[in-house]
Amino acid sequence: MPLKAVILIGGPQKGTRFRPLSFEVPKPLFPVAGVPMVQHHIEACAKVPGMKEILLMGFYQPHEALSRFLVSAQQEFKIPIRYLQEYAALGTGGGIYHFRDQILSGGAEAFFVLNADVCSEFPLQEMLEFRQQHGDVHSFVILGTTANRTQALNYGCIVANADTQEVQHYVEKPSTFVSEIINCGIYLFTPAIFQHIGEVFQRNQQELVLCPYLGEESSNGWQRAEVIRLEQDVFTALAGSGKLYVYKTDGFWSQIKSAGSAIYASRLYLNQYSKSHPERLAQNKPGGPIIRGNVYIHPTASIDSTAVLGPNVSIGEGVTVGAGVRVRESIVLHGASLHDHTCVLNTIVGWDSTIGRWARVEGTPSDPNPNDPYAKIDSETLFRDGRLTPSITILGMSQLPPSYCSPASGADSPLVNPLVLSPQAAASLSLLKSLFSTPSSFLTRS
Ligand SMILES: Nc1nc2c(ncn2[C@@H]2O[C@H](COP(=O)(O)OP(=O)(O)O[C@H]3O[C@H](CO)[C@@H](O)[C@H](O)[C@@H]3O)[C@@H](O)[C@H]2O)c(=O)[nH]1
Predict the structure, then answer these.
(1) CA–CA distance from 15 to each of 24, 124, 209, 247, 420 (Å)?
(2) Are 347 and 395 in contact (CB under 8 A)?
(3) Ligand 1 pocket, 89 CB below 6 A?
(4) Where do the domains of the chain lie?
(5) Would you write out the chain's pLDDT as a tens digit for each of its 446 residues?
(6) Inter-residue contact 3 to 111 (CB < 8 Å)
(7) Is 88 in the pocket of ligand 1 (CB under 6 A)?
(8) Ligand 1 atom closest to Cα of 118?
(9) Is the shortest distance between the CB of 9 and ligand 1 below 6 Å?
(10) Mutate to test the pocket of ligand 1, among 14, 41, 173, 258 (most ligand atoms within 8 A of CB)
(11) Ligand 1: distance of its center to the CA of 50 in Å?
(12) Is the minimum distance from the CB of 142 to ligand 1 under 6 angstroms?
C-alpha cells in the first residue's frame, strides 16, 4: 500500500520552553542521542514497507541547516524527503489540509502524521496492523499511552471502548480528569480525513462571513479560516462516530518540550540503540575512555583515555574532553571543550562552549517519578508556587553558528533561501549573543 508521512515541525515561535537552545538551531534539529530530533522519526517512517515520501511541515524560513539535513537524510534513508513551508502557523490540522494535494500525490492510500517534539519507539507498523484488525479500512488511528491521573491533564485525553478501542470521547488538555489514556501525537489517517478537516474549514469561513470582525486579527480572513487544530476541531467531533480508534502502546514515549526533557529523551533513545543501533554506542576499549552504561560519541570527538563517561551521555562533533573529566546524564554539543578534571552532571553544554579545568557544572535531573510506571516528564513551568523549579543546567553557545549568521550558500539545493530575520528576531539574537558570550568565557579557567 503506498504510504506517506508528515512530520509537524512547527516554527520559530514554537519551542519557547526549549530556549536558549532553540535560538541556535531549530528545535527539530537539536541532537537527541547524537542525531537530530526528527531523524528518529524519519528513520522509523523510512522502515515502514510502502513508504513513498516523508514531508516535514512547518513555518520556519528554509535555511541552510534544514536544507543540509534534508539532503543528508535523503541519502542515508534512500527516500524522498521534502520540506513544505506554511505561509503562517496553520495549526496541527491546517497545514496538512493546505498541502493535501502534495500529501496525496502519487496515490497515497494512507499517511502518518507525527508531532516532531515527541520521542517514541514509533510503532507505525503495529498501527497499520491494528487498523486492519479493528477498524474498517477508512478508520483513523491515534497512538495512545497511559499517563497518571494528574499528568494526563497536560495532554489530549481519550476515552475508548474497552473491546473495540473505538474513541468515544476526546478532550484536549482537560481541566478535570477525563482519562488516563493520552494522545501521543502520532496518527494514521486515510485521505478521508480531509473531508472532516474540510468541514471545519468551511465552518470557519462561514463564521467569518457572519462575523467578519473575527478575521481582523490576521491580515487576511482566509488565513484565519485555514487555522485548524486536529485535536480540538477534528478529533473531538470524530469521537463516537465509529471512525476514530486508539492503538495503545506500552513502548517508551515522551514529549520533548523543555531542554531537560531532551536529556531524558536521549536516555530513552540510547537504551533503544542497544537493539537498533549497537554501533552507535561507545564501548570500553584498551586505551579509550571509561564508558559506563549507554554513551554516544561522535567519531570526530577527541576523548582523553582517563575520562569517565556515562551513563546517558552524548558527545557531539569535534568535542574535546580532557584528562580526568567526568560526564554523566548530559549532552555535550558540537565544538565544546571540557578541560582537564571538569565534572559535568545533568547538563547541556552548548555549542563551542569551554569549561575550564576543575570546574563542576551540575544541574538537577528533571526525570519522571521513577516510582510511578505511568509518570511522564514535567516540562510545564519554569516557576512553581513562586519558586524556580530545579532543572538541568544549560550553557548556551559562545557564538552564533555560521548557518544562522551568513546568507545561505549552495544555490543548487531547491530549499536553500537566504535567511530572512525579522527585526525582533535579529534583536533577540544579538541580545543572546551578548548574554551567552560572557558566561562561557567566565567558565574558562586555564
Ligand atoms: N507545521 C506546523 N506544526 C505545528 C503547528 N503548531 C504546532 N505544530 C507542531 O505540532 C506538534 C504539537 O504541538 P503543540 O500545538 O505544541 O501541541 P502539544 O502541546 O505538544 O500537544 C499535542 O501533543 C501531545 C503529545 O505530545 C498530545 O497529547 C496533545 O493532544 C497534542 O496533540 C509540535 O511538534 C509542533 O511543532 C503549526 O501551526 N504548523
Answers:
(1) 12, 25, 33, 27, 19
(2) yes
(3) yes
(4) 3-255
(5) 899 999 999 998 766 777 778 777 899 999 999 999 999 999 999 999 999 999 999 999 988 999 999 999 999 999 999 999 999 999 999 999 999 999 999 999 999 999 999 999 999 999 999 999 887 778 999 999 999 999 999 999 999 999 999 999 999 999 999 999 999 999 999 999 999 999 999 999 888 776 665 555 555 555 678 999 999 999 999 999 999 999 999 999 999 998 889 999 999 999 999 999 999 999 999 999 999 999 999 999 999 999 999 999 999 999 999 999 999 999 999 999 999 999 999 999 999 999 999 999 999 988 898 899 889 988 666 777 888 888 889 898 766 554 443 333 333 333 323 232 333 333 444 443 333 333 333 333 32
(6) yes
(7) no
(8) 26
(9) yes
(10) 14
(11) 26
(12) no
Q: Tell me, what amino acid is at 217?
A: E
d(CA 99, CA 259): 31
Whether the CB of 362 sits within 6 Å of ligand 1: no
Separate counts of helices (H) and strands (E) for the chain: 12, 29
Q: Whose CA is nearest to atom 15 of ligand 1?
A: 92
Q: Rounded to two decimals, what is the model's pTM?
A: 0.88
CATH superfamily for domain 3-255: Spore Coat Polysaccharide Biosynthesis Protein SpsA; Chain A (3.90.550.10)
In Å, what is the CA distance from 280 to each residue of 32, 77, 266, 269, 328? 13, 16, 13, 11, 17
Say yes or no: CB of residue 91 within 6 Å of ligand 1: yes
Question: Ligand 1 in contact with 185 (CB < 6 A)?
Answer: yes
